[in-house]
Each structure stands twice: as structure tokens, then as C-alpha cells.
Design brief:
It is elongated and about 50 Å long. Helix 1 runs antiparallel to helix 2, helix 1 packs parallel to helix 3 and helix 2 runs antiparallel to helix 3. The protein contains 3 helices and no strands.
Length: 95
């Protein structure tokens, strides 16, 4: 298995894990007060937007040439870091 393939598989797996974590957050939010639901819904919308960006860059990486792959990977790393931090923060706030 090439490093490229391993990276793509690792990123796909992580994206699936984050999707499950966001769904868990959605379930937790469903049982809160209306005002809190509105506040948390905004946070979840931001996480979903970051998740879509991560999925988009992953698709780009799958189709990238070896020259473009490095640039796409750098962008993906930034998106991944932001999403990882956002999901961790949301899980800390929403218990």
C-alpha cells in the first residue's frame, strides 16, 4: 500500500469518526432547552461546514496529481486540525 493510499484511507476513516461524533452532539442537543438548541445549532452548522470542506478536500486529494497532492495535503491538514479542535470543544461544552 502506498503512502498516498494509506493517507487517503486514514482521512476517510477519521471523517467517518467525526461524522459519528457530530451525530452524537446533535442527539445531545435535541434534549436541551430551546435557547440552548439555537446556540448549539449554530455551532453544529459550523462543524458540518468544516466537515463538508474536509470531504471536499479529500475528494480533491483523491484526484490530485502528485504535484498538486502536496498542496492539497497542506490544505487538508489545516482543515483537519480545525475540525478536530471544533469537535473536541463541542464535546466539552455539550455534555
Amino acid at each position: 500500500m502506498s503512502i498516498y493510499t494509506a493517507n487517503i484511507q486514514k482521512m476517510e476513516t477519521q471523517l467517518n469518526v467525526w461524522n459519528a461524533q457530530i451525530k452524537l452532539l446533535e442527539a445531545r442537543i435535541a434534549s436541551t432547552s430551546t435557547n440552548l438548541k439555537l446556540l448549539r445549532a449554530r455551532e453544529l452548522n459550523e462543524l458540518r461546514a468544516q466537515q463538508r470542506a474536509a470531504a471536499d478536500i479529500l475528494k480533491e486529494m483523491k484526484n490530485a496529481t502528485s504535484e498538486a497532492w502536496g498542496e492539497a495535503k497542506a490544505t487538508a491538514d489545516k482543515i483537519w486540525d480545525d475540525l478536530k479542535i471544533g469537535i473536541a470543544a463541542a464535546h466539552t461544552e455539550i455534555k
